[in-house]
Amino acid sequence: MRIIVCENYEEVSKKAAQMILSQVTLKPNSVLGLATGSTPIGMYENLVKLNKNGDIDFSEVRTFNLDEYYKLPKESDQSYHYFMYKNLFDHININPENIHIPNGMTADVDAECERYDKLIKEAGGVDIQVLGIGNNAHIGFNEPTINFEKGTHLVELEESTIEANSRFFDNIEDVPKKAITMGVGSIFKSKKIMLIATGENKAEAIYNTVYGKVVPEVPASILQFHSDIVLILDKKAAKLLKKEDYKIA
């Protein structure tokens, strides 16, 4: 596990975008695993700039998003379909056929989850998976006590996750209670994982991810066993880590 600590959110976002740039430069038809939430927005802004400047070409890139709310229409401005197009896809030269996001409106959840995992496998697997982390150390929507071997599946969201996501909705009652998410088993198959986190509220989750026991109660702790993972943090998120365990960007 490599840990890079940056001065602030802006520097974290730039560093993360540079890692995506390096991956796509090395392999133009890379398979990117993408995340939503407030943390990766800055990274997406940097990628849009790089694309507009001609530094990165998304024309052959394939993408798979981690998750989508269950039974929230993709046209909703709170869906992750909407989020991804608003923050990235509408502004870059990506082929719409190469964009994959779970279908939260599916009538057959099991079939949709199976289809999604099959698509990832047929694409050759994820080359680099972007992750955020929840205050309770969830990755994707894999909540504490999750089975580490699960593939894509339907999950009931924890109250803490619903509360954290309520800031994006008019009121907490509007937040979906379920989501379709790539499982820890799916995420772990990624060739490289890049987890980004900023803010003091993520410090405990980061500490438990790096130093804690590998237990389902701390979903991100399984990342200790991944062969190629980098954490990109700001100083606040890294405040509980030992200085000898990370390098300053």
Automatic annotation (TrEMBL):
GO terms for biological process: carbohydrate metabolic process; glucosamine catabolic process; N-acetylglucosamine catabolic process; N-acetylneuraminate catabolic process. GO terms for cellular component: cytoplasm. One of its GO terms (molecular function) is glucosamine-6-phosphate deaminase activity. It holds the Pfam family Glucosamine_iso. Pathway: Amino-sugar metabolism; N-acetylneuraminate degradation; D-fructose 6-phosphate from N-acetylneuraminate: step 5/5. Residues 11-224 form the Glucosamine/galactosamine-6-phosphate isomerase domain. It catalyses: alpha-D-glucosamine 6-phosphate + H2O = beta-D-fructose 6-phosphate + NH4(+). CDD domains: GlcN6P_deaminase. The active site is at D67 (proton acceptor), N136 (for ring-opening step), H138 (proton acceptor), E143 (for ring-opening step). PANTHER family: GLUCOSAMINE-6-PHOSPHATE ISOMERASE. Belongs to the glucosamine/galactosamine-6-phosphate isomerase family. NagB subfamily. This is Glucosamine-6-phosphate deaminase. It comes from Romboutsia timonensis. The gene is nagB.
